[in-house]
Design brief:
CATH architecture of the largest domain: Alpha-Beta Complex
Oligomer: single chain
Number of domains: 2
Strand content: 15-25%
Structural class: alpha+beta
CATH superfamily of the largest domain: DNA methylase specificity domains
CATH class of the largest domain: Alpha Beta
């Protein structure tokens, strides 16, 4: 695979990363000839009130994890890049972290951080350019340039991208290549959307059963609406027969430390950066070859909880066995019947407030299992908790299946991507 790049002041050519020559019919063009970088930014006289803001941390694994809706006057100063349909976002800071995506459909007043290079395709099929600029070899190229800078953190200037030469096949072939790869990503997005819906259903069911107390009574009727009895407690009114306790009564800390040299090659690794905010479905992970310090074992189905103060909202279910950062607690239920109930107790805002108040440390306050285990909760009867867990286990099983399918789809995409971009694999364009 051979691409040519302008030096962009780096003294480094993309040529040294690639040796293959693209097909002769592919036309070399500079990116700045077929796209515009940072085309539009918010100006002082723009009459914009509310924006949909995309920060660098919100972009992972080719998708936007969350968009913040806020008033422009309250937005950070870096919220300036105006985003349109088919704009490509690539973080200019630490490109090795792969904070990149394409915005296929932009909501009104979508704005991105100035930490992104926003590439607007003009004379090239957007999906083709997007996948070219996000090949692993090109990301390594950007990373090497960023590492060579004298700034406080690895970063590159957008002109590096502007002066990169991309070899373009005929437009109809660009479409076929771009759509083949995009369809894989769209299937991944569909699975993520299904997981999001399953999670919302699970959270709604938890609220109905354990907040509104409309769990089914012995006749299958909603408890509270059917005249169920309540009694006073330190945590307010609770159904008769339920009891007060601590989260440690139903949960255990599964922490087991392991040294790097004891971790088998290829073991999946989860750090705080991989855990989303309060989402059952965890989709990002690393591998053990990247590890240099002690880690903790976890098992499939364990509930992973970020124990540093800024990350108490990072809670997810492990979809496989592996190791995690020592900044994560690996928690599970003592009895299977309480598993589903425990999951959503760890999602509660009241728990976040509790661990925030009890956390200690100056530079980076953190919680620990000893303090967390004393968190006061209402404990429902085993039968009620077990019925809820049965439903939640079904949801989690479907979600984990989708996660595994996404892993396979990602592997297929990442295997095809460099071969399609180099012309090693040709995709015949449809004939009319």
């Amino acid at each position: 695979m051979r691409f040519v790049s302008g030096l962009g002041g780096s003294g480094l050519s993309f040529d040294q990363f690639n040796n293959n020559t693209p097909p002769s019919r592919w036309e070399p063009r500079l990116v700045k000839e077929v796209a515009i970088i940072n085309e539009q930014s918010i100006k002082k006289n723009d009459s914009i009130d509310i924006i949909n803001y995309i920060d660098i941390a919100a972009v992972n694994d080719r998708k936007v994890d969350h968009i913040q809706t806020m008033k422009l006057v309250d937005a950070p100063s870096r919220a300036r890049r105006i985003i349109k349909d088919n704009d490509i976002l690539i973080s200019t800071v630490r490109p090795n972290l792969k904070h990149y995506t394409i915005i296929r459909r932009a909501e009104k007043n979508t704005v991105a951080s100035t930490g992104f290079a926003v590439i607007s395709p003009k004379k090239v099929y957007p999906e083709f350019l997007y996948y070219f600029l996000t090949t692993d070899s090109y990301t390594r190229y950007l990373s090497q340039i960023a590492e060579g800078q004298t700034s406080a953190y690895p970063a590159f200037n957008p002109d590096i991208i502007e002066n990169t030469t991309v070899y373009l096949p005929p437009y109809d072939e660009q479409i076929e290549i771009g759509e083949l790869l995009a369809n894989l990503d769209k299937k991944i997005e569909l699975n993520n959307a299904i997981n999001k819906n399953l999670e919302e259903m699970a959270q709604a069911l938890f609220k109905r059963w354990f907040v509104d107390f409309e769990f089914p009574n012995e006749n299958g009727e909603p408890y509270k609406s059917s005249g169920g009895e309540f009694e006073e407690s330190e945590l307010g009114l609770i159904p008769k027969g339920w009891k007060l306790g601590r989260i440690g009564d139903i949960a255990i800390n599964r922490t087991q430390t392991v040294r790097p040299e004891e971790i088998p090659s290829g073991t999946k690794y989860i750090g705080l950066e991989h855990i989303p905010r309060k989402k059952l479905a965890l989709a990002h992970f690393g591998v053990s070859e990247e590890l240099e310090s002690n880690k903790l074992w976890f098992r499939k189905g364990d509930i992973l909880f970020g124990k540093l103060r800024p990350y108490f909202h990072k809670v997810s279910i492990a979809p496989f066995d592996g190791v995690c950062s020592t900044d994560i607690l690996s928690i599970n239920s003592k009895k299977d019947e309480y598993y589903g109930y425990l999951v959503f107790q760890l999602f509660s805002e009241r728990l976040v407030e509790y661990v925030t108040q009890s956390s200690n440390g100056t530079k980076m306050p953190r919680t620990n299992w000893r303090d967390m285990s004393n968190y006061a909760i209402v404990i429902p009867p085993t039968e009620t908790a077990g019925e809820f867990t049965t439903v939640i286990r079904g949801f989690v099983s479907l979600m984990i299946n989708n996660i595994y399918e996404n892993m396979n789809l990602s592997n297929i995409r990442d295997t095809l991507l460099p071969k399609l971009m180099s012309g090693e694999i040709r995709v015949p364009a449809e004939k009319p």
